[in-house]
């Protein structure tokens, strides 16, 4: 639950991989009836009643054990519950 005026912050690269979670459990990142179901849109639908007050992305690198790096981007969405 989010208190009135409270914030919910979701930050994720949305790296959906079937070897870590079944596709049926994904919040977006897949096609439904041939239509892309995007994670950001699904998050907004799931947290209905909260307003998006900030949305952005940040790039970062993850070091691999072999000395190489993974460059990726994390999406950030901040939701706020309206004051009553």
Q: Would you write up a description of this structure?
A:
- The chain is about 10% helix and about 45% strand.
- The protein is mainly beta and about 80 residues long.
- It has one domain (about 5-80).
- It has a three-stranded antiparallel β-sheet, with no helix packed on it.
- A hairpin with a 5-residue loop joins strand 4 and strand 5.
- The longest helix has 8 residues, at about 40-45.
Principal-axis shape: globular
How many independent structural domains?
1
**What portion of residues belong to β-strands?**
over 45%
Instruction: Give helix % range.
Output: under 10%
Instruction: Name the poorly predicted regions.
Output: none
For the largest beta-sheet, the strand count, sense and barrel status come to:
3 strands, antiparallel
Tally of separate helices: 1
Supply the helix-strand structural class: mainly beta
What's the count of strands?
5
Distance between the termini: 15 Å
Overall mean pLDDT: 93
H/E element sequence: EEEHEE
Question: Spatial order of the strands in the main sheet?
Answer: 1-5-4
Radius of gyration (CA) equals 16 Å
């Amino acid at each position: 639950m989010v208190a009135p005026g409270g914030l919910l912050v979701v930050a994720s690269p949305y790296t959906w991989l079937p070897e870590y979670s079944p596709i049926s459990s994904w919040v977006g990142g897949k096609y439904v009836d041939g239509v892309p179901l995007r994670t950001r849109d699904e998050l907004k639908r799931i947290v209905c009643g909260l307003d998006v007050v900030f949305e952005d992305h940040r790039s970062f690198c993850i070091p691999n054990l072999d000395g190489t790096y993974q460059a990726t981007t994390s999406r950030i969405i901040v939701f706020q519950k309206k004051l009553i």
